[in-house]
Amino acid sequence: MRSQDLKRAKRDVRRRVLAARDALDQAARSADAEAIADRLLALPEVAGARTALLFWSFGSELPTERLIGALDARGVTVALPRIVDHDLEARVYRPGDPTSATSFGAREPAGGRRLDPAELDVIVTPAVAFDRAGRRVGYGGGYYDRFLPKTRSDAFRVGIGSSVQLLDEELPAGPFDLGVDAIVTPDETVRCSG
Fold first, then answer.
1. Which of 123, 30, 38 is nearest to 76 (CA)?
2. Which candidate among 14, 34, 70, 121 keeps its CA 20 to 30 Å from the CA of 43?
3. What domains are there in the chain, each with its CATH number?
4. pLDDT digits over 59-108, tens only?
5. Which residues 6+ apart lie within 8 Å of 142 measured at CB?
6. What is the dihedral of CA 18, 178, 151, 104, to 10 degrees?
7. Nearest-CA neighbor of 148 among 126, 171, 178?
């Protein structure tokens, strides 16, 4: 697929899935986030993790505060992304640590020790949409596609999202688009074929 066609196809997926996600009311989002937290925390890869990169939700994304707090309470070193010079850094974060607002509405650690990507056991990866093979369409910045190759090959990459974000169709992907090993929705956990 040509570059312009790929961009157009991803833009169409983003528009369609974001409209469906935005239509979910806050009560449904909160219930979905609770179910996802329970499923994710029960996964063996997460149960055995010493370090995990999560993300601070924004807009109509499912709230991630419970996951952050639950992993921290388990003694897991939790990191959140911080954008520095157009690249993603993993910064250690504990609930209550100071954060600053990003231009797109998320929060990022105001400080925190920078974690080497190779230290991460679990990477909870955001996206607008996922397919059952683990392909993802993000927001278009490429931050995770540049960050994930720096992580260990055995690090567990898992996407989370509401059921409207998991599509049965094959998503458009280019050679530099990196997927996830599993996807957790409120209704199911999908182990991806890659």
1. 123
2. 14
3. 3-191 (3.40.50.10420)
4. 898 999 999 999 999 999 999 999 988 899 999 999 999 998 887 778 88
5. 176
6. -30
7. 178
